[in-house]
Amino acid sequence: MTLKDIAEKADVSMMTVSNVINGKHKRVSAKTIEKVNNIIAEYGYVPNLSARSLTNKNSNIIGIIIFTYGNNDTDYLDENPYLHIMLQTIEVELRKNNYFTMIHSIVDKQDIIEFSKNWNVDGIIFLYPLPDDTLKALVAENICPIAVFDSRTNLPEVITVCSDDFKGLYLSTKYLINHGHSHIAFVSDYKENPLLTLRFNGYRHALEESGIPLRQEYIFPYASTYKEGIAAGKQIASLNTKITAAVTTADVSAIGLMEGARLGGYRIPAQLSVTGYDDLSLCQYTSPKLTSVSQNIRQKALCATDLLIEKIQTGTVAQSPHAVLDVEIVERQSVLSLI
Amino acid sequence: MTLKDIAEKADVSMMTVSNVINGKHKRVSAKTIEKVNNIIAEYGYVPNLSARSLTNKNSNIIGIIIFTYGNNDTDYLDENPYLHIMLQTIEVELRKNNYFTMIHSIVDKQDIIEFSKNWNVDGIIFLYPLPDDTLKALVAENICPIAVFDSRTNLPEVITVCSDDFKGLYLSTKYLINHGHSHIAFVSDYKENPLLTLRFNGYRHALEESGIPLRQEYIFPYASTYKEGIAAGKQIASLNTKITAAVTTADVSAIGLMEGARLGGYRIPAQLSVTGYDDLSLCQYTSPKLTSVSQNIRQKALCATDLLIEKIQTGTVAQSPHAVLDVEIVERQSVLSLI
DNA sequence: CTGAAAGCGCTTACAG
DNA sequence: CTGAAAGCGCTTACAG
Asked: How far is the CA of B103 from the C1' of C4 (A)?
């Protein structure tokens, strides 16, 4: 069943059917519209979007780049704890705006370009930050509007949506200070990572603001994983310092930290208060339940999607293309008040 | 840059370029192949797959139906704890086989049909079971090969991939029995749900096999959520029965159960042993760490994808279209041995 | 081994 | 308000 078939059944031209389908009602009489619509419904006609893409030079397809893969096939698994929320939120929002969602993994920049040309993709969303020069190269190719999460690039052509990472760690550090802590460890391998560096700066700022010295020996450069968290916890427990609290840059890291400190003989939070980052649902499943910094992931996903759609449809975005969303601290049980 | 442009630059016909691109090397001389490939590389030509779809009547697009949505926009969030692993695994496998992956949510059967016609989708994967009559109706429409997870339909036209749910609860129940438990609660609202009913049957079978009577009062029909788990745990703690252990059909339910029992004054696992189901990564983050039944999700995802590809390419599948994958119990700390 | 032509199912000027 | 024709970028018989 094609447009042509419908046209024949309705005894009108293909163009008329096309106009009815595309809502160009100015160009067709009400009577014809009804007749055509009835026949479309009767035969269950659905337009072929490949054909439409071919003529229109756009596809209504948005590509979502879900990860970059290296050599190991399973490297990627479990990496992005937000993947399902992001994907679901983005897909629903795109669908509301008549876009279709393709997911795609890549190995390098070239993959992205090929992919976008293959389907005349209308826009691309990267679920994770890319190096600035990769983004720049992509912009130079001028393939389609691009949105990226958690990138700090200032390229005006790319839409970025971040959360306020500086504030995130400022809040968790401040929260500990407000509860009487002043010997606060920072557990994260932040150097080389712009996002984590921002969080570190938030930590530092909170200390400074309260006149608490920043001590190098309170900085524990462990990666943000459960396993590394355990190692950090063990180390802190074995060190016999004055540390009474630790901030982290990931919930799994914080959970590992609690576990490691416990293995080192500490009671949590009695001897060590801990804060997480991400506010994953598992924060409520640990004991003590984990106090954490929450990014509103749904809001981030919607923001990126809406900006991208705006850019696709109008060629530009009214506000800044670089959105920074607020964060907040979610209080649970992993911090002991010393006052 | 189109096929035609390449043909002109190479001074051959479009057909020759097409044959080179599609690897039909029998029909082109080695010299021509090289010449054409060089020009393709030089200009970074990438074929337009919409055009190809249009001629070929197939698209190399596989649709993945990620969820069905109701009235509430955010109902779906957090529903499928495996979504990210499934999606990533499937996408990589499809990509290896030259397919592209579209994700799509639906509100009803009609959506699926429209979607598949829109893009001439080559196959569809449902990430969650659909009612048998919906599947039957879909098969009747004869749109494309279909694969479904966790459906027990016996329609030979649809590929199903399940894990051995009967065995799953048989294993966890048996595990408790082997550790000296005989008063074992079953916590799950299994009725009306075919998958959970299979798990219940596994529980029942393990009891029977060991000559332990099945007691109605040991069955707690709570939904498989954290919140309901808490309620169940509180109830069990308040009941003062001989129950020393409980099996569940979800990790979050088990975690809630431990929490609820604790709130009711129980120590876990000293007074109540608990097993989960799914072996989510959060099992290792709770205390005690949760013993759980593991389905190999990656394997399930690969199995469904490979069967679907086989069916698309050969029109049928060599083995049974209904795969049931093995499960195993992952031992941690939530079960106390009474012997 | 290579080419010219038709056709896939749409939309868009251009006419009337 | 409606139609006939061209064209989007491919592939596939059909010829040579």
From this structure: 41
